[in-house]
Design goal:
7 helices; 0% strand; Four Helix Bundle (Hemerythrin (Met), subunit A); mainly alpha; globular
């Protein structure tokens, strides 16, 4: 049973980033045609595509750190502090790094046994590992929706 649950969780994570989810929207496809000229624009408020993409990736890296036994090192204050992205190559490398990290996290998740999945995520105050994995997926869908809206808005003001 645990292998089925860990495999399903990893597949669910991969689906929001690579496709095949119920919403039919995924990070890879949405970011694939964004130009570096658009990543910094904030047409609808405080968030840019770069800022939201970094925010999503930040929590992926935080979970990788936990699954690699390096502890939880995450702060909401730092979760929007993205690196400088100036050139198209910088942007493409940044997106590829996100996707590589997601695959690494999915591989970690696939190895989890059921006791670990239902156990605490670092500490009882953070809830279960399951809650944190599913929560991160939901969080990604939420911010991915914001990125889609920004892209749609930018396409109307060319």
């Amino acid at each position: 049973m645990s292998q089925q649950l860990s495999t399903a969780l990893a597949a669910h994570l991969r689906a929001v980033f690579f496709g095949g989810n119920w919403t039919t929207v995924n990070v890879k496809d949405v970011l694939s045609d964004v130009s570096v000229e658009h990543v910094h624009l904030r047409p609808l408020g405080p968030n840019s595509i770069l800022r939201l993409s970094y925010h999503i990736a930040y929590y992926v890296r935080a979970q990788i750190s936990v699954f690699e036994n390096k502890g939880l090192h995450a702060s909401d204050d730092e979760s929007y502090s993205h690196p400088d992205v100036v050139h198209e190559d910088d942007w493409r490398r940044f997106v590829q790094h996100i996707l590589t990290d997601v695959e690494l996290l999915a591989n970690h998740i696939e190895l989890l046994d059921e006791d670990t999945i239902w156990g605490n995520f670092v500490d009882q105050r953070y809830g279960s590992v399951f809650r944190n994995i599913v929560g991160m997926i939901e969080h990604t869908h939420y911010h991915l929706g914001q990125i889609v809206i920004i892209k749609k808005y930018l396409s109307t003001v060319k």
